[in-house]
Design brief:
The chain is mainly α and 472 residues long. The chain contains 18 helices and no strands. It folds into 2 domains: 49 residues, no CATH class; 405 residues, Growth Hormone, Chain: A (Up-down Bundle), CATH 1.20.1250. α12 runs antiparallel to α15. The longest helix has 29 residues. It is globular and about 65 Å long. It starts with 53 loop residues before the first helix and ends with a helix. 56% of the residues are buried.
Length: 472
């Protein structure tokens, strides 16, 4: 096999002259390794370079994730005002506004896998934009019409479901997009930027929504502002490119397994199931805690604004920590070590959350939330990239969608379970927090079992190994 030409010496192809039958300068068709996938040609597969335009798609995915997440969390920080405005008898009705989004995600997961695999990331973004824009405006209409009589809650619920249909297209895309456009030394950082934009949107909702809603009658105006911003954010979708003219590295060019072969292969992997259990539990509890944070703190005398600030601390500190950790893991590739450190820290934080609110002061819950955010956000992107590494050449959208579906399903289950465990007289959620801490310890056990007992060969970073063997 002839060596691949240096990545940086290849001229950037002109999009107007790109062709499937183009030949790399200095090479003939017989001297180029045949690695064909995603419509890359024989010659194109030998030219490895990255393109500045990849940042346009990454930024668009970030913006879409921010706004869809804000749409998900909209009512949680102002749950009391929401319940009053819509004249709901139980707080659990407000919780369903978050829960339906998790369930909608699961319903759309097969469509997402098919869309990313056959139509690419641009089509996925268009689907997400269509669902989310329709959903946010439908919510506003449901709240505005008949607002003096409590609005139309079922219409708002339908809007939430549509937002839920759009969410999996942007949540499942980061691993697929980073595999297509970025090298092995950039993928965790790229995935982190997009994946963590989702909780950033939740942070904005936690922080901003309580200030937009000073009284229940402000709910329609809040929904209007969010609808306008969401509509504006979807505009860059039309400028996103589906795939680069040439792959960034050998692992991006390598042919991925067809779904019928890939899916059974994933299901037979013990390491996949351990990561799935860990990821699903921790994402589920993060979603549940974010949705219920106001209800967790309120019985101890904390206001909606203070709970909103706590949610913002959870997410902002997490983003800052991930900004430090992700580039380090990108360079060191110490996936497993990081997982074995971070997951037990998260479990300890959930144990601490049982006791922190009882202090009656702001510092203890804020400190626990800060550590929880730092560990959770650092874990998220490296878990998504690690599962792609150990299952390669399974296509990334398959594993990432399965992981996110597990997290969304358990998020719904945990919200319902924790709501049921809430004291009906006082609203105290201590039993729910004990339940949360106990189950999070199961995630820690699963994390410590990954690659244990001589199974090191099953946690090999296969994409990185391929790129290294090709001199990348």
């Amino acid at each position: 096999m002839s060596p691949s030409p240096p990545r940086l010496t290849a001229p950037e192809p002109d999009p107007k002259t790109d062709s499937k039958n183009a030949t790399a300068p200095g090479y003939d068709d017989t001297s180029v390794q045949q690695i064909v996938t995603r419509d890359f040609s024989f010659a194109e597969a030998a030219i490895y370079r990255v393109y500045r335009r990849r940042w346009v798609g990454l930024a668009t995915l970030m913006l879409m994730n921010i706004m869809i997440s804000w749409g998900w969390i909209t009512f949680a920080p102002v749950s009391t005002s929401t319940q009053t405005f819509f004249r709901l008898q139980k707080a659990s009705s407000v919780n369903w506004l978050s829960t339906v989004i998790f369930l909608a995600y699961i319903c759309m997961s097969p469509v997402v896998i098919y869309s990313l695999r056959h139509f690419g990331v641009r089509a996925a973004l268009l689907f997400a934009a269509g669902f989310s824009v329709t959903g946010v405006w439908l919510r506003f209409i449901g709240a505005r019409i008949g607002s003096s009589e409590g609005g139309h809650f079922p219409v708002v619920m339908v809007g939430q479901i549509l937002i839920g249909f759009g969410q999996p297209f942007v949540l499942s895309a980061p691993a697929y997009y980073s595999d297509l456009w970025f090298t092995s030394n950039q993928r965790i950082t790229a995935n982190a930027l997009v994946s963590l934009s989702n909780p950033l949107g939740a942070a904005l909702g936690q922080l901003i929504d309580p200030f937009l809603v000073s009284q229940p009658s402000d709910i329609p105006n809040m929904l209007l502002y969010i609808a306008i911003i969401t509509t504006a954010v979807t505009a860059p979708v039309f400028f996103v490119h589906g795939k680069p003219p040439t792959p960034p590295c050998p692992s991006s060019a390598q042919e991925k397994l067809p779904f019928k072969s890939a899916f059974p292969r994933v299901l037979r992997s013990l390491e996949f199931w351990l990561i799935f259990i860990m990821f699903s539990i921790l994402v589920g509890f993060f979603n549940a805690s974010s949705s219920l944070l106001n209800q967790i703190l309120e019985p101890y005398g904390y206001s909606e604004n203070e709970a909103g600030i706590g949610g913002a601390i959870l997410i902002v500190v997490g983003l800052l920590a991930s900004a430090v950790v992700s580039p380090i893991i990108d360079r060191s590739h110490t996936f497993l070590l990081a997982i074995r450190i971070l997951v037990p820290v998260i479990s300890i934080c959930y144990i601490g959350l049982i006791f922190a609110p009882t202090s009656g002061s702001l510092a203890p819950p804020y400190v626990v939330l800060a550590f929880l955010g730092a560990a959770s956000f650092s874990l998220l992107p490296l878990s998504l990239e690690f599962i792609v590494e150990i299952t390669h050449p399974v296509s990334p959208e398959i594993t990432s969608t399965i992981l996110w579906s597990g997290g969304q399903l358990l998020g719904a289950v945990f919200i319902l379970s924790m709501t049921a465990l809430t004291d009906s007289q006082t609203g105290n959620m201590r039993r729910a927090l004990v339940f949360q801490a106990a189950i999070s310890c199961v995630a820690a056990i699963a994390a410590l079992g990954i690659g244990f007992g001589g199974r090191v060969v099953h946690v090999k970073a296969r994409r990185i190994a391929l790129d290294t063997s090709e001199g990348m």
